[in-house]
Amino acid sequence: METQRPVGLSKTQGWEIGVRRTLPLSAIELWTRLMTPPGLGEWLGEGVPLPLGVKQHFTTKSGIRCEMRSYEEGSLIRMRWQPSDWAEPSTLQVRLTPAKSGVTLSFHHEHLPDGDQREAMRAHWARVINRLAEIRS
């Protein structure tokens, strides 16, 4: 008999979390908010070289190492994301999806170190979405 895995522990991606929220904005408004200050600093940090593109490597001022894996203007960013105190990189995906009342912003984070870090990242990305929602254009 197979034992049941804890919530958030996938068979192939390790510990993962998804946080999403629909905001009353157009996709272009939300993408612009994500990719320009102060919004860029809210989710990715300071010291990000722009424009972002595939295969780009950089380290933020707070020490997070990033490697861009996929980039689709206006809809998707997928990257390796590794804070300085993590032994291994994780995978972070940011996606915008059209919704009836605006656009849904999703953060999906895979290959997290453990269940405690999963919960910490759930709280982190929820705070990030809330702060992004509060930015006035």
Q: Overview of this structure, please?
A:
The chain is an alpha+beta fold. The chain has a single domain (12-134), classed as Alpha-D-Glucose-1,6-Bisphosphate, Chain A, domain 4 (2-Layer Sandwich), CATH 3.30.530. Helix content is 25%, strand content 37%. It has a seven-stranded antiparallel sheet, covered by helices on one side. Strand 3 and strand 4 form a beta hairpin. The longest helix is centred in the C-terminal third of the chain and has 20 residues, at 115-134. It starts with 8 loop residues before the first strand and ends with a helix. The model has no long low-confidence stretch (mean pLDDT 94).
Question: What is the structure about, briefly put?
Answer:
The protein is α+β, with helices and mostly antiparallel strands and 137 residues long. It has helices spanning 27-35, 39-43, 115-134; strands at residues 9-10, 14-23, 57-59, 65-72, 76-82, 90-99, 102-112. 17% of the residues are buried.
Alpha-carbon distance between the two ends: 55 Å
Tally of contiguous helical segments: 3
Measured by DSSP, the beta-strand proportion falls in 35-45%
CATH architecture: 2-Layer Sandwich
What's the CATH class, please? Answer: Alpha Beta
Number of DSSP E strands: 7
Number of domains: 1
Inertia-based shape: globular
The CATH homologous superfamily is named START domain
The secondary-structure class comes to: alpha+beta
Low-confidence stretches are none
**Topology pattern, helix = H, strand = E:** EEHHEEEEEH
Strand order of the largest sheet: 1-2-7-6-5-4-3
Mean pLDDT: 94
CATH fold descriptor? Alpha-D-Glucose-1,6-Bisphosphate, Chain A, domain 4
- Provide the gyration radius in Å: 15 Å
Q: Could you estimate the helical fraction of the residues in percent?
A: 10-25%
**Largest sheet composition:** 7 strands, antiparallel
